[in-house]
Design brief:
single chain; mainly alpha; 2 domains; 10 helices; 65% helix; 4% strand; globular
Length: 307
């Protein structure tokens, strides 16, 4: 898309607030409006959440606490973006690339599946170079019900995370920026914000921020190629689930239930250390493999825009 041009006949307040191409707010004001709606919803929902946590005696740093936090985000994020799309953008919520179709579930599942070889490649490289020590599988030390419960609960958590973060970053932010600037800057700015939002995670650094920025660009590609968010959502779910729950790496500095138990001892610049692969250079071959897989899938899709 091209940068919006300003008509010389427009009044000053129209130039500042109103899009020159149609009667709605400029992209920057719409982004601010969505954040305002989200803040209001968080203020309204947070007291009920706090009461629930105290009543149920939930550890806010544990899995249940993270699930509660993501459920809060689900309500605030989805609600605020729905309001912004309806009132500010003059567009439908489904217009963000959320159209339901027979391919939607297939796209999500494909995105999840692509992350198995991506994370498997990183794990294989570390194992082959002696940068991690295999300690065993979860069922060697935990009863089967604990293993199954860990898999199910983490999958549910990462379903919420994938929906919330993709709807916000590759959904509303990227697409609103694209309507006011162009695709290149929309991807770069939204991916940069995505990286900065993870600075509060344990062990975050400039390398982890750069790695997550690259991951943000990678997650934007399926939307750019198909104009649908479903593959990106699946990739985000699969990335976290395969990285942490299946292959036993930290997920952006956070520990989760691990099916494969291993101890990383390689150079942090390559492995990412306690933050996980996003903070190490080994994330690059994983992202390259993922880009190839997504490109091949998108090209074969009847909805693909790739020539």
């Amino acid at each position: 898309m091209n940068i919006e041009t300003v008509s010389p006949k427009r009044k000053l307040w129209q130039i500042i607030f109103i899009s020159p191409s149609e009667p709605r707010l400029r992209a920057g004001w719409r982004l601010g409006g969505q954040l305002f709606f989200m803040s209001i919803l968080l203020v309204l929902i947070s007291p009920l959440t706090a009461i629930s946590i105290r009543t149920l005696k939930i550890d806010t740093n544990g899995l249940n606490g993270m699930v509660i936090s993501q459920l809060l985000s689900l309500l605030a994020m989805t609600g605020s973006i729905f309001l912004a799309r309806t009132w500010l953008d003059k567009r439908s919520f489904s217009g963000l690339g959320m159209q339901l179709s027979p391919r939607a579930l297939l796209d999500v599942l494909a995105g999840i599946a692509f992350c198995v070889p991506m994370m498997g490649l990183i794990f294989a490289i570390e194992l082959g170079l002696g940068w991690t020590h295999f300690d065993g599988m979860a069922w060697n030390s935990d009863p089967l019900p604990v293993v199954l419960g860990g898999l199910a609960s983490n999958l549910f958590l990462f379903l919420l995370v994938g929906w919330n973060e993709e709807l916000f970053s590759r959904g509303y932010q990227l697409q609103t920026l694209e309507s006011g600037l162009n695709t290149f800057w929309a991807v770069l700015i939204s991916a940069s914000v995505f990286g900065l939002l993870h600075l509060g995670n344990p062990g975050a650094s400039w390398t982890s921020t750069l790695g997550i920025l690259l991951a943000g660009i990678f997650l934007a590609l399926p939307y750019i190629w198909t104009r649908q968010l479903w593959i990106s959502i699946g990739l985000h779910i699969g990335w976290n689930f395969c990285e942490g729950t299946i292959f036993g790496f930290p997920v952006s500095g956070l520990d989760t239930f691990r099916l494969v138990r291993h101890t990383v001892n390689g150079p942090v610049i390559w492995t990412g250390g306690g933050f996980g692969p996003e903070a190490g250079l080994l994330v690059i071959p994983g992202l390259m493999l993922g880009t190839l897989l997504v490109y091949m899938y998108a090209r074969s899709s009847f909805r693909s825009k790739i020539q």
